[in-house]
Amino acid sequence: MKNRLPVRLYLFSTTFVSLYDSHLHLQDPRLKSVLNDLSSTYASLGVERVVVNGTEEADWERVGQLSELFPFVKPAFGLHPWHIFNRSAHWLGNLEYCIDHYNGFVGEIGLDRWIQNHDFDDQVEVFKKQLQLAARKNVPASIHCLNAWGRMLDILEEEALPEVGVLLHSYGGAQEMVSQLAELGCYFSFSGYFLLDRKSKARATFKTIPIDRILVETDAPDQQLPEDRDEHPLPLDDDGKSVNHPGNIGAVYSGLAQVLDMPVERLVDQVEENYQRIFG
Questions:
Q1: Does the pLDDT of residue 231 top 90, yes or no?
Q2: pLDDT at position 147
Q3: Chain-wide mean pLDDT for the chain?
Q4: Angle at alpha carbon of residue 273, lines to 206 and 31, rounded to 5°
Q5: What does the CA dihedral 165, 168, 171, 173 come to, rounded to 10 degrees?
Q6: Residues 276 and 216: beta-carbon distance below 8 Å
Q7: Is the predicted pLDDT of residue 217 greater than 50, yes or no?
Q8: What is the structure's pLDDT at 175?
Q9: Cα–Cα distance measured from residue 150 to residue 75, given in angstroms and rounded to the nearest whole number
């Protein structure tokens, strides 16, 4: 059995901890069964806030409803590159309405060359419009990027960015790009998926990121942790794939503290400070 730090942070020496999940998708149907008990689960862990990200027009209303139902939910609304083909003619106006109506952020947006049959030029256009909206309203944007980091960096250098910053969700870019991205005001979130043995490169990259730019996420129901770190196992979904429980945020904190070789209490305090700076 591998040595690992305790997950249940509320048992630590501090009398109270505040955990923050910077990126997940509670509106996903795969998590419907956990919502009834989520408030108690989060209370037991000391979870203070979570940022729930929409990915297409069809789920924006549900994200907004969750923010009204749960006081710990901060909503974000965005058109994910996987869903740009489904957008309506009025998608950008609908997006702005949701941000204003629910006092929300922008996300999940981005670029993705990994998916098949993608229209990269269209992705760039949609991404830029959403980034411009975030800058105009000065709200943070949560950014997805796969196999497009060079173009992503170009756009972030060319476009005006929100003064509060942008989040590179589950950052998987090159270590050599960290300093440039940090100079642009980017934050970098660590997911439990990076604790898999084969993700040693991502773990090494996070050791080079300024500590005041690091956040923590589950990306639930996606990006499952290694089996021995899964504190809240769920049944496989209808396609036979694993489902990541949002309560695993404590396990991600513990894993990242090991990666950075720092006391988990110190990481908790630093992530709270970082979260408040960009999302607070």
A1: yes
A2: 96
A3: 94
A4: 70
A5: -90
A6: no
A7: yes
A8: 97
A9: 29
Tracing tokens 């139902």 back to the chain, one arrives at 69
In one-letter notation, the amino acid at residue 211 is I
Residue with token string 């489902």: 243
Which 3 state secondary structure label does DSSP give 105?
A: strand
Count of helices and strands (H, E) across the chain:
9, 8
Q: Which has the higher per-residue pLDDT, 199 or 2? A: 199
- pLDDT of residue 87 exceeding 80: yes
What angle (nearest 5°) sits at the alpha carbon of residue 25, between those of residues 137 and 120?
A: 65
Written as six digits, the tokens of 190 are: 């660590």
Tell me, what's the pLDDT at 2?
40
CATH number assigned to the domain comprising residue 42: 3.20.20.140
Residue 2 lies in a domain: no
Tally of structural domains, the chain: 1
Angle subtended at Cα 225 by Cα 118 and Cα 214, rounded to the nearest 5 degrees: 80
Compute the average pLDDT of residues 83-102: 97
Please return the burial class of 12, using the count of CB atoms within 10 Å of its CB with bins 0-12, 13-18 and 19+. middle
Tokens of 14: 């501090």
Range of the domain at 225: 9-278
Q: CA-to-CA distance for 274 and 214, rounded, in angstroms?
A: 7
pLDDT for the residue 51? 99
Give the pLDDT score at 57: 98
Task: Give CA separation, 127 vs 75, 255, 263, in Å.
Answer: 19, 32, 38
- The answer to whether residue 3 sits within a structural domain is no
Token pair of 252 as six digits: 């991600």
pLDDT score at 16: 74
Domain assignment present for 105: yes
Distance between CA atoms of residues 189 and 220, nearest Å: 14
| 259 domain-assigned | yes
